[in-house]
Every structure is written in structure tokens, then in C-alpha cells.
Amino acid sequence: MGTNNIDYPSSNAQTRTVSQRFIHPSYDNGLNFAAALLKLSTPFTITNYVRTACVPNAQMDFAVGKTCTAAGWGSRNEYDPYVNPILYEVNVDITSRSTCDLIYDGIVTDNMVCAGGVGGEGICHGDSPLVTKVDSKWYVVGIPLASYGCAREGYPAIYQYAPVLYDWIEPIFRGEDPPLPPTPAPPVSTAVKEHGPD
């Protein structure tokens, strides 16, 4: 954190190790609730180069047409499998969920939000969450899930909608861990009794 070049980090860069990972308990191995939280060994120090974005509560809604910013070290095009060492950002507008659902043949749910698909600008493999500014505060709008190619005209990217994650994240603000996925039940072993001749 705190640098715009991962090959040559500046003196403002900070690194931390992850002590625990929390996967959303409703994650279905597909696109629904595809979100995870990383608990750090020690917190980052807030500076002019390392800042935070707020978690929107469940009542917040980001309207169609709202301009958001996506940033990251993602690929510069869909045919490039490598991350880019330079941090880039792009502004994209939220698009209609119903229109996005039509484009993607019915996979977009109310737990998702779509943005981009205009002007050949958008996210690609490895890019970071979508954020926007509301009343001088930055909020996370969504977490990248999927898109057809990268920044293709007419194909907005699909994001996990951040407000629906609030109830899961909220325990952190009380110093507690978020709920974990339920532990799968152990397989049931059925003993087969051998029968001799009658």
C-alpha cells in the first residue's frame, strides 16, 4: 500500500501480512457473495498515501449514472495475463441492473451492480474495487466479479454490490470477527451387514 509502482515501491509504501481470511458465508462458488475479508497482522498506518474507503450500510444505494472510480494493477488488455506494475485508474458510470442482466443472459442479481461498457474504458484482470465519493467521503461500491473481455464497448463489468455486505462486515466495527461459513457435516458412513445363508 502507498505506492503506485509495485516493481519500485516508494518510501511511502507499507506492507502487512495476512493473519486470517474470512469468506462470505453465503458464497456459492459462483458469482453470488463472492467476497472475502483479510485480517491483517497489524493495521496499516493512515498517511497521505494510505487512506481508507467507507463501507456503505445496507440502506445506501448508488444510482444509475453515478460516476465511480476503479483502480488497480490489472492487465492493460484482456489478452495480457500479467498484472501491470503501474497503478492506473478509470472513471466509469453505474449502468442499469436490468440492462446489464439482459446483456449477460440473466446472471445479474440484486446483490450485484454493473458499471462501464462505454468508450472502451473499464477494468481488467486483477483490478480493485469500485469506489465513489459521497459528501466528501469515499465509499466502496462494488468488488469486481466478471465481465465479457476487458472494457469492451457495450459490456459493463459486474461487481458484487457492497451495501449488501454490510451486515456481514459490521461486527468488525465492534472488534469482533465476521461470521464464518457453516462447517460442512461429516459424510455419513453406512455399515452394510453381511448375511450368511438362511
Characterise this structure.
The protein has 198 residues and is mainly beta. The protein has a domain of 113 residues: Thrombin, subunit H (Beta Barrel). The protein contains two helices and eight strands; from the N terminus they run E-E-E-E-H-E-E-E-E-H. The strands form two sheets. Strands 3-4-5-8-7-6 form a six-stranded antiparallel barrel. Strands 1-2 form a two-stranded antiparallel ribbon. A hairpin with a 2-residue loop joins strand 6 and strand 7. The model has no long low-confidence stretch (mean pLDDT 89).
Q: How would you summarize the topology of this molecule?
A:
Elements: E1 18-23, E2 36-40, E3 67-72, E4 88-95, H1 97-103, E5 112-115, E6 127-134, E7 137-146, E8 157-161, H2 166-169
Antiparallel strand pairs: 1-2, 3-4, 3-6, 4-5, 5-8, 6-7, 7-8
